[in-house]
């Protein structure tokens, strides 16, 4: 079998406050998978995603990407790792007063010296790349709009275009549709699915909605209180499975 793209081995994360974010997680993700992570608020979904791109360091265990341990990466190695991994957030994280073009080009910053990126000296190739990325998310006509003139769904698609500028192998999306209405939710989820299918990017998405998870995932992972309590391919998933992840946890809190 092919080498796994991501291997999480016995990973635990305890925050400085003493809160346990993750408890002994073991998880292997293959190239090309579309994985949805579900679980109650506070279950550790964001923590899990953020350990994969080293926004958070783990307390214990190891994470391998393409067979290499990443947990001690620093400087150049860490920058190279982060280029491979695009990230999408609930609140889009765009520079609201900047143009769509500028926001998308900023996804390329990891490839430039600080000097050039501060001055906005982007190459002609990268400007064309930004147009292509915007075409991919069907936002090319908004290239000169200001980010804050766009709807939430449009902003999220620009954020996806920005992440595509990195030529990522992995796309991490942390509640990407939490602040969107059903119609724009569909546009954003369809976009993530398309770049998984068409561009072969491995996608890991945190979602609260089980029906959406079932609609889009190849595989669903469930977290509860920092532990991995569920891991099935979509063909094996049954909606009642989630009672133990959601209702069971609710009972515990009573
Ligand atoms: N920076 C932090 N410092 C301390 N504790 C944190 C930090 N980030 C998260 N936590 C705690 O770690 C646990 C897991 O949080 P996490 O945000 O990963 O959960 P989540 O499943 O993503 O929840 P949500 O759906 O609300 O985003 C929670 O108890 C949370 O309060």
From TrEMBL:
Coiled coil location: none
Cellular-component GO terms for this entry: membrane
Keyword Transcription regulation: no
InterPro entries named in the record: AAA+_ATPase, ABC_transporter-like_ATP-bd, ABC_transporter-like_CS, ABC_transpr_PhnC, MetN_ABC_transporter-like, P-loop_NTPase
Gene Ontology molecular function terms on file: ABC-type phosphonate transporter activity; ATP binding; ATP hydrolysis activity
Residues in ABC transporter domain copies: 6-250
Protein name: Phosphate phosphonate ABC transporter ATPase
Source taxonomy: Bacteria, Bacillati, Bacillota, Bacilli, Lactobacillales
């Amino acid at each position: 079998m092919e080498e796994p793209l991501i291997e999480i081995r016995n990973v635990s994360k305890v925050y400085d406050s003493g809160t346990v974010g993750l408890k002994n997680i073991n998880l292997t993700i293959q190239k090309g998978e579309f994985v949805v992570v579900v679980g109650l608020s506070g279950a550790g979904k964001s923590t899990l995603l953020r350990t994969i791109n080293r926004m958070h360091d783990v307390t214990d265990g190891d994470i391998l990407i393409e067979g290499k341990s990443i947990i001690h990466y620093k400087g150049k190695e860490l920058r190279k790792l982060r280029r491979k991994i695009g990230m999408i957030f609930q609140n889009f994280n765009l520079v609201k007063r900047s143009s769509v073009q500028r926001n998308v080009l900023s996804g390329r910053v990891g490839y430039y010296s600080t000097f050039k990126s501060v001055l906005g000296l982007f190459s002609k190739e990268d400007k064309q790349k930004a147009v292509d990325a915007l075409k991919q998310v069907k936002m090319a006509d908004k290239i000169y709009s200001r980010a804050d003139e766009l709807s939430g769904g449009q902003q999220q698609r620009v954020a996806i275009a920005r992440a595509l500028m990195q030529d990522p192998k992995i796309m991490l999306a942390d509640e990407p549709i939490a602040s969107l209405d059903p119609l724009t939710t569909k546009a954003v989820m369809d976009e993530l699915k398309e770049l998984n299918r068409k561009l072969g990017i491995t996608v890991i998405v945190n979602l609260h909605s089980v029906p959406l998870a079932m609609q889009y995932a190849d595989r669903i992972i469930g977290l509860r209180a920092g532990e991995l309590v569920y891991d099935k391919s979509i063909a094996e998933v049954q909606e009642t499975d989630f009672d133990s992840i959601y209702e069971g946890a609710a009972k515990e809190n009573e």
